[in-house]
Predict the structure of Oligosaccharide repeat unit polymerase.
Amino acid sequence: MKRLLRLPSAYLALPLLLACALTLLTYDLPVDYLQGLLLLAVVAAAIGWFDVQARIRIPPASRFRARSYAGTRDAFVALAFAELVAAFCVLDLALFPIPLFGNPSSYAVMKDGHEHVRHVSDICWVLPPIGLLCARKRWLRNTLIGIGFLFPILVIDRNRVFATVFAFALVVLLRRDEARPVPWKAVGLLGFAGVSVFSLLGMLRSGPLDYLTLPFSAMYRAAPEGIKWLLLYATAGPYNFSAILAKHYGNASFLIHQVVPLSGSVATAGTDIPLDAPTINVGTEFFPFLMAFGPVGAVAAAVVLYVMLRWSVSRLRATVSLFSLLIFLRVSYVCVMAPFAPQAYTWTNAGFIGLCLVMQVVAAGLPNRRTRAPIVSPSSPQ
């Protein structure tokens, strides 16, 4: 398992294969839908095979443990950034209604400038990693961790709940003491809490799932409501991907809206996409590419995403710097979420990566407080 954590493709190929397997178990799929699942599974298996042969690995935990970020120039810039994000989280809660305490179904309603504030507060997932790695004072560390976990719950943002749990757990695993067993109990408890919150928020904001008419299997129908939400979230992307591939539907406008700023809405709800359930409208990271360019476009998008992941790992291998770690946390997360919804090929993702690169340059230009001034011996008397 320790080797698996260091394998880059484990963050892309394994989630895709798991989502495909769960989709087979969750639905009684029409025969022509199996082609889409097979395409995703073959691409995932090919990426995994190539990655194993390439022998490029994430640095071992010993290198992360040997690197102290607190008190460095990188930590100074990262903490300033984290405090800005935390301030926007507070503004978001103070200036606009809190969905958890008001109308849970209004979680996606943004008006009166709320969407601009949310663009910054959405980065709340970085607060726990930065607090854990950079804060010397316990109160500051606990505050950043607390805001990072609490904010997405209050605004009923399940994606940010997962992002926060993933980033925090991965940092704990990457910096573990290799002489000790992997802390699976702590990580498992954190994961269980995350999926429990996810299920509760799903039931709270959307209610029961009885209205859906998808071809669910007997196993799914017999599952508890909370498990149904998890299965639906994990399998809706591959299901819709397979359905659209089987229906030979094409429409490039959604990809254009996703990659070209201000060109139109990226929402798939309420559109003419022939979804089997209009309210279940996600379709994997590669869904817009499938609609624009067909299966070839979807495969190309998966390959480029793997290249992006390898790039983030190569940056991390060089110096294990703080901002390279933040970039890796982001890229690995969008890879893990690739079976569920588009997050990699967005301006939000590109903006965060670009911001980390800029902050690294800014930090390098600051005076290094850890560099001691040379000791000059007094000149001997003549």
User: Anything to note?
Assistant: Residues 372-382 have pLDDT under 50 and may be disordered. The radius of gyration is 22 Å. Residues 2-364 form one domain.
